[in-house]
Amino acid sequence: MTDAPMRDAKAFDDVIAAIAFNADGLVPAIAQAEGTGEVLMMAWMNRDAVLETLETGRVCYWSRSRGGLWRKGETSGQVQRLKDFRIDCDGDTLLLIVEQDGVACHTGRRSCFFRSVRGEALETNQEVQTDPSVLYGHGHKH
């Protein structure tokens, strides 16, 4: 059950109609930091995750590994608050402008995009800011 406020049955119908969910009922969502434009992460959303995010202002994704809604920060405390919800020209990708508490990546880095190709090598471009065991305890899988 969600703490989402009661809504009109037709609320956000135009938004849902504009989104081209894939055959699994999912759409990729890119989270971008408000102000800096830094790309923080990519995750999937289903219809329920989209609606909950729009209704509550707290970003919610669909976790394929958990098989359920994933309210960003529910285990780590690293919440994302929605500042703008954008749909691309084809309706098949979402861009969420967010205010990110702490780190976005389960590895304890600010962004999930912490590796760069340099020549033929893969290099880490961000250090761990928060020890994942502090965020999740041991054995966490997101």
Automatic annotation (TrEMBL):
Keyword Iron appears in the UniProt entry: no
Residue intervals of the Phosphoribosyl-AMP cyclohydrolase domain: 41-114
Residues reported in the UniProt entry to bind Mg(2+): D88, D90, D92
Coiled coil: none
Subcellular location: Cytoplasm
EC number per UniProt: 3.5.4.19
Cofactors: Zn(2+); Mg(2+)
GO MF, any single term: phosphoribosyl-AMP cyclohydrolase activity
Keywords: Amino-acid biosynthesis, Cytoplasm, Histidine biosynthesis, Hydrolase, Magnesium, Metal-binding, Zinc
Recorded superkingdom: Bacteria
Alphabetized InterPro entries for the sequence: PRA-CH, PRib_AMP_CycHydrolase_dom, PRib_AMP_CycHydrolase_sf
Claim: Hydrolase is one of the keywords in the record: yes
Annotated signal sequence range: none
Classification via SUPFAM superfamilies: HisI-like
Pathway the protein takes part in: Amino-acid biosynthesis; L-histidine biosynthesis; L-histidine from 5-phospho-alpha-D-ribose 1-diphosphate: step 3/9
Alphabetical list of Pfam families matching this protein: PRA-CH
Cofactor binding comment, as recorded: Binds 1 zinc ion per subunit.
Catalytic activity: 1-(5-phospho-beta-D-ribosyl)-5'-AMP + H2O = 1-(5-phospho-beta-D-ribosyl)-5-[(5-phospho-beta-D-ribosylamino)methylideneamino]imidazole-4-carboxamide
Family: Belongs to the PRA-CH family.
Self-association and partners: Homodimer.
Function: Catalyzes the hydrolysis of the adenine ring of phosphoribosyl-AMP.
Protein name per its UniProtKB record: Phosphoribosyl-AMP cyclohydrolase
Organism of derivation: Azospirillum rugosum
